[in-house]
Amino acid sequence: ARLRREGGTARLRLTVARDGTLEAVAIAASSGSPALDAASLAAARAAAPFPPAPAGLAGARHVFLLAIVYRP
Q1: How far apart are CA 67 and CA 32, in angstroms?
Q2: How far is CA 28 from CA 9, 37, 48, 50, 58, in A?
Q3: CB atoms within 10 A of CB 8
Q4: How confident is the model over 7-11, as a mean pLDDT?
Q5: SS3 assignment, position 55
Q6: pLDDT tens-place string over residues 14-70
Q7: Could you count the other beta carbons within 10 Å of the beta carbon of residue 50?
Q8: What range does the domain containing 55 cover?
Q9: Is residue 2 in a domain?
């Protein structure tokens, strides 16, 4: 993607358990580049586990939308 000077924004949907475990990650909106989308998914998986949820935050899991911007 870098050699082809691809750019775009990949939007991810992450589901994270209270303990910080990544339960699911998916492309919510494609960057338009399969290579950038795959790199975004890999980055989210590599970043896990995440910090645990604060004690005052209710729910067994939480969904986050994350935009990753790639500039050519």
Answers
A1: 13
A2: 11, 10, 18, 20, 24
A3: 18
A4: 96
A5: coil
A6: 999 999 999 999 999 999 999 999 999 999 999 999 999 999 989 999 999 999 999
A7: 16
A8: 8-70
A9: no
Instruction: Tell me which amino acid residue 43 is.
Output: A
Q: How many domains does the chain have?
A: 1
pLDDT recorded at residue 3: 63
Residue 70: strand pairing partners: 8
> Looking at the DSSP assignment, which residues form a beta bridge with residue 67?
11
Q: Is residue 36 part of a domain?
A: yes
Cα distances from 55 to residues 1, 5, 18, 52, 59, in angstroms, run 41, 44, 9, 9, 10
